[in-house]
Amino acid sequence: MIRKAPISMIMTEPVITLKKKDSLETAERLFKKHHIRHIPVVNDNVVVGMLSYTDLLRLSFADVTDNSDSGADAMVYNMFIIKQVMKKHIITVSTSNSIKDVAEILASKEFHALPVVDNNKLVGIVTTTDLIKYLLKQF
Fold first, then answer.
1. 31: alpha, beta or left, given left = phi > 0 and alpha = psi -120 to 50?
2. Apex CA 88: angle with CA 6 and CA 103, to 5°?
3. N- or C-end of the chain: fewer Cβ atoms within 10 A?
């Protein structure tokens, strides 16, 4: 294992993003199309929030009905906007943070993804899955 390895070694880039004005249906399509669980919400590439698939599932009947065209989901989604559902107080890391630093943050908090920013602009995302994959390569 490389001591002080930067998070830029394992972060995902480019990042799938949303804007506050995007619909929750758009968010659901992106989650499913890209097989991801976290999407940063940006304004001019500056992170203003984070939406997780779990946030959507709290509003949705998608997994209960197993029907991707659920009219009930569309109705519920139309009652909310991304700005209302997203997490607003986001911790970010920079590309120079070490993998160990990021692992400590994720281990001590109740979330599973961190936006990676440089000069206040989104450049990547790192998830607990990225960390697990990195650790598995070490064995």
1. alpha
2. 25
3. C
Cα(134)–Cα(136) distance, integer angstroms: 5
The beta strands (E) that lie in the chain are given as 38-43, 46-52, 113-118, 121-127
Sketch out the chain's domains with CATH numbers.
Answer: 7-137 (3.10.580.10)
* DSSP bridge pairs for 107: none
Determine the Cα–Cα distance for residues 19 and 82; give it in Å rounded to an integer. Answer: 8
- Written as tens digits, the pLDDT of the chain (139 aa) is 666 899 999 999 999 999 999 999 999 999 999 999 999 999 999 999 999 999 888 886 544 445 555 555 556 677 788 998 999 999 999 999 999 999 999 999 888 999 999 999 999 999 999 999 999 988 8
User: pTM of the predicted model, to two decimals?
Assistant: 0.85
Helical (H) or strand (E) element with 83: helix 82-85
